[in-house]
Predict the structure.
Amino acid sequence: MSAQWLGYLEAFLVLTLGLFNLLAQDWRRRVLAFAFQAIGVVLLCWQSLSLTLSLVKFIEGWMAAAILGTAMANVTSSLSPEDSQSSGVAPRMSLPFSVLVFRFATAILVGASVLGGVPYLMSVFNGIRYHQAFAILGLAAVGLLILSFRSSPFSIAIGLITILQAFEILLAVIEPSVMLNGLLAGVILGMAFLGAYLMFFERGQYSP
Amino acid sequence: MSAPILWIVLPMIFSGGLLLIVRWRRTSAWVGSALALFLAVSALLLPVGKSISLGILTFEMQQSWLLFGRRFILENADRPFVVIVNLSIAFWLIGSQHTKVHSLLIPVGMASGALLIASVLVQPFYYGAISLLIAAMLIIILFVSEAEEVTLGIKRYWIFQGLAMPLLLLAGWLMSGTEASAGEIPAAALIYTLLLIGFSLLLSGVPFQSWLPAVAQRVNLYSFSFAVFITSFSTLLFVLIFLRQTAWLFTSSWMILFFSFQGLLMTFLGGLGAIYHHHLGRWMGYAVVKEIGLSFLTVSLGLTSSQPLSFLAILFMQILPRGIALALLGLALNIFHDHGNSLRIQDLLGMGRRYPFATLAFFVAALTLVGFPLTAAFPIHLLVWQGWFQRFPPIAFIAIFGSVGVLIGGLRAMAVFVRNVDTQEAIGVEFESRYQVILLMLSSFLLLFTGIFPQWSLSTLYNLGLTFLRGG
């Protein structure tokens, strides 16, 4: 398989996982998807960045997923059955099918406009490849959609980190600075910690 | 010793230490205010780049600090900013001794102050956006700890600040090294788009201002006043540093239009919201919206003027009246809140008879925020209003409307405070504690004194502003 097709596969992987995070209900699967999304980000960054710096993104992504997952496990296990029923945290809480269709349709529409933006991004930032540009815009769009459609701290943290991951891929191409990578890793972990901290205050009114 | 280590790294270490002793709230507040005062005094007295003799000890404060290939540069011109930030922290922490605030205010205040200073001093300049985001995240922790719930306003603030950082970082990267005119830069349109959205998000401009009243309704207003004061001032300076990187951006008509339009909308919406409020926290939030709008109008005047620094230095003059008025409002409203656990206007009936000093302080602070004659903010409001009357009178009228709206909201509250209540329970007088009375009266006196003799303090602040802007 050529490197170009491998790049497309990586972009497809991160976008599918991002989309899954937009549509899925079970927080365990979402955390898992979020963790695998970090692997896709690492592979996309690795094409422009050293392996050492790319691995930082892998560690930060998995740590963020671990922080959010642990916090969510604690929050859901500490809810009483009455709380769970009143707040709608049933083990299998399901949204109406129409909501999922609407979210998916919006993602498709946004995806179409993302496709139009890819050549512009490539013309502004030299050295960026097509699949990287597609992944950057796609991840940013998915992150924005998550922020728009979901309101729990868990989802806000995932949405913001997804946008920052898009930004990380772009920075890997245009400014491979050690300090910037370190700072962004700190910010992403900070976002995850903040999300976890906020989750504890939102228990009882939780809906992922 | 390096100046950035003294005024950025040391406060971060202090805040870590303060976090360990927050259990003893009063002790940590005293230690925190003493440390902030120490940092402010040291910034005032220690020149950068010159040898200093302290007894047998002679040393030189170096102006730069290298970290992973990036520099933090603190020149003598930046010292006024360091002094102001640390004095503000000390002022708020001293006031926090006898009012109910979350103990996290002390370490978070110290750490966020250091991060805000770092955001202005870091090179390349656009790395400051990351510092601002980290400071915002610390403030969110404070808000949530106080509200003990995650409100929609807090979530909005988190999202807005989280989105601002990548946009500004990217715009800064695109701008770096471009000294040509905007027409010669291929990505000029993208830079403008990123900057305009990024500035709106960062400075809580329209339509991202809605979190302010929403958060003010739920959190402790003393902490809120500290957070919005210190962040709005620092972020505005960060934006000015951004604009001054390239001549084409500083003189850009897009930027002038942006700040004028944002200022117009913010003052209008702030005034309008303040008129119809039913909650004093929301009223304070709208007053802050109007104040940020006034700062936007000041920046816009500076950008259109042939001598921009003379107008931009007004931003430093705004610090004293705005800071004291916001702290005073926070303190007075906290006292009311402690009484009835509510700041809804119908629950505050006859409160002026129970807490006369807090009511008086509320009145003076409200008058100051709207720029009423003989209060400290009047000369500043007058300068901005005059400037806009000469350039484009409708904006001046809207700016005055914003002030009048906040005043009407404040007077509505005052009418409720001083209303006669016949019930036996309401007649009992509960006066504030002695320490609170001293703080309230001292701050009110300071606001009136500065208003009557503006030349004694405001001119000093104006000169500090000029020094900072000329050097930056």
Q: What stands out?
A: The radius of gyration of chain A is 17 Å.
